[in-house]
Amino acid sequence: MAEAARQAALRGLTGVSLSDVADAVGISKSGLFKHFESKDDMHLAVVESVMERFSDVIWKPAEGLPPGRARLEVVFERWLHWCEEEWPDSGCPVTALSVELDDQPGPLRDLLHKRLQGWRKTMLREFRALRDPPLSEAEAQAAYFQMKSFILGHSDSRRMMGDADAHRSATAAFEALLDRTCRIAA
Predict the structure, then answer these.
(1) Confidence class for position 81, pLDDT limits 50, 70, 90
(2) pLDDT on residue 147
């Protein structure tokens, strides 16, 4: 799974064949069929595996913290780590999968959409918990949109533009968002 996910992040999910993965891990294509009945099954397993790893790397370290700012700060830092350290050769595979599958109806898109909706729901809950009274749904949605925009901007700045300061810039922007969002509007 790790090799299939690595190749998908680099070349796109639909560009990864059973033969590619079998060759890379040193087994026969028929040996890979013991794990997957088809290329489609392997692709579904890759999406599920990437999303499980995303959760393990980003959410699990924050889960035991108090809801709201403490969790969000850890999630954001872990998300940057995910992009920089976990996938140094390709960048975030979730972003790559989203771009590849966003206009491709079918089981792969449906699975990714479902998992991303779950992630969004979790993040909206954390943003609502930033203050008392809680953020409205619209405020939480806007804050999550900005958070995700900072992640995408970080990746673009770092990977495409070679900005060595992208991590600091993204973190500063996110901290400013949290500061603004925690204040109750008068």
Answers:
(1) very high
(2) 98
The domain that holds 159 is classified in CATH as: 1.10.357.10
- Pair of tokens at residue 172: 């500063």
The tally of domains found in the chain comes to 1
* Burial of 167 (C-beta count, 10 Å sphere; 0-12/13-18/19+): middle
With b for 16 or more beta-carbon neighbours within 10 A and e for fewer, the 29-43 pattern comes to eeebeeebeebeebb
CA 147 from chain centre, in angstroms, equals 12
CA-to-CA distance for 161 and 174, rounded, in angstroms? 20
For residue 158, give Cα distances in angstroms to 12, 78, 169: 20, 16, 10
Query: What's the whole-number average pLDDT of the chain?
Result: 92
DSSP string, 143-181: HHHHHHHHHHHHHIIIIIS--TTHHHHHHHHHHHHHHHH
The confidence band for 30, taking pLDDT boundaries of 50, 70 and 90, is: confident
What pTM, to 2 d.p., does this model score?
0.90
**Quick one: pLDDT band at residue 185, thresholds 50, 70, 90?**
low
Q: Hey, what's the torsion of the CAs at 68, 71, 73, 78, to 10 degrees?
A: -150
The range of the structural domain enclosing residue 45 comes to 2-182
Q: Quote the CA–CA distance of 67 and 82 in Å, as a whole number.
A: 21
